[in-house]
Amino acid sequence: MPVITVNRSDLEKLVGRKLSYEDIMDLLPRVKCEVEEVTNEEISYEAPHDRPDLFSVEGLARAIRLLLGTGRNDFIFVDKGLKAYNEGIPNRPYVAFAVVEDLELNEEAISQLMNLQEKLHITYARKRRKASIGLYDLDKIEFPVYYRLADPIRTRFIPLNETREMNLYEVLEYTEKGKEYRHLLENWEKLPILVDSKGTILSMPPIINSEDTKVTTSTRRVLIDSTGLDKNIVVDMVTVMATSVAERSRSRKIVFVDTFMSNGEIIRSPRSHGKKLSIKLGDVREVIGIDISFNELLDSLRKMGHKILSQDSVTGEVSVETPMYRLDIFEWIDLVEDVAMAIGYDIVGSKAHRLPPAYSPGRIHPLEYLTKRLKLLFVGMGFMEVVNYMMSNPWIQNEVFEDNKPLIKVSNPKMEKYTCLRRWLTPGLLEVVLANQERLKYIRIFESGDVAIADPGSETGAIIERRIGFAISHERATLTDALAVLRTLSETLRKKFTYEYTTIKGLLPERTAVIKVGDVVVGFVGEVHPKTLLKLGITRPVVVGEIVINKLLNLL
Q1: Does residue 417 share a domain with residue 530?
Q2: What is the pTM of this model?
Q3: Could you tell me if 204 and 171 are in contact, meaning their C-beta atoms sit under 8 angstroms apart?
Q4: Same domain for 93 and 136?
Q5: Contact 209, 193 (CB under 8 A)
Q6: Closest by CA position to 132, among listed 140, 124, 142
Q7: pLDDT for 440-481, tens place per residue?
Q8: Domain match, 111 and 219 both
């Protein structure tokens, strides 16, 4: 979850009152924010990943005002006939816009809005892959605005925070953001730009904005854009951004922009209405375990920003419209969560009479306990822990090792790198070795985690195993290095390890063995075959080992 730092006096100004330490510790958890630090000048908090509207001081202030029942929390949506044209970008097909007027900005306000933009980029927009966002001074722009592909050599502008004009290739080569995000435009013959009717370039999405249209303390009207892969996501980004910027507006006025697609579709943004949902008092009581009244239900919903559309005190049913910037509300159960937070989890916990009683204290699961002990042993032996995703792909799991073992594949993968579940830890460890071989001459790493072994005979079609794996790489790495590690584990666990030669594809057959405790095979150890290392680009020998912790636990 992202950590947000806000200026305390700025927050109090937007809320409309002073906030004591006790106020902060009470109010922030009621909107799912975990307080990290509170000083006289700043407040740091962890915002929930599904509440991007809380990624800045503006959204936090709005949520607090709603809880307190103070201040203004509505927006004025206006149609001024503003138009934009999407001329068709095949690899990044969608763009949406909005305008916010009557702004009063200072340096702190600009800093918060830029931070919000970057937090959205990193989290919800997946490092700009799914979407990117731009803010511009509208007084320097003339509608309509165009989203189009441009010649990367002939097209020139001054990138944000730069002093000289560059063509689009130079932007990718020489600017910080260009270097960081140029992979998103890899192999494009022409590159995307936003340009107004006068020919002023606003930005080169998803890379960088133009210096000529940047937002300053003199800016009174802001144009917001989002380009990306999904229509709903770009509209979401514009909506969250516009409603946050509008917290800095005297009139809270947001202007629609209609974007005309090349196929004739018109995308109007930002979103001015949320979802319409119904909830019943009886269901709320059943879930949270306390007998709140109908009026308490209505009050709690209003405190979380929901607009009451209809109510029936006889049936206990309430229909609401959720705030347009709330991206975390999908079903009625999400409204129940909001009601519980508005009341306060501390109050719900103390008053609840339907929550199941606790008959014994909680304790760590034996599998987790053994995993933790093994991790400490590896750290004690000088290994560094690494963490890889359980998601993987057939190339690194099988093809590199010239194997064809069955894999648990994803039916709707979003990325080529993550199309299946890993069946062993070794491929991920080798990727880490590859990434670090230029920096470190001696590598000792380990990882613990779950793997999925395809098993058609099981109920789910897979067996999940908890494993711990390790890799050692240096100029003279051999099986002896790994056996020394396993000897230490054997002595510490007081279980004798024995070894039998085996064949594992991708490892040297004469230098590979299974690890046994009694008659039970609990893992393997071996030297990686030079052919495998060559395919991966690893230049030094590597020895690897894996132990199935579930099997070890049964023996202990």
Answers
A1: yes
A2: 0.69
A3: yes
A4: yes
A5: no
A6: 124
A7: 999 999 999 999 999 988 888 899 999 999 999 999 999 999
A8: yes
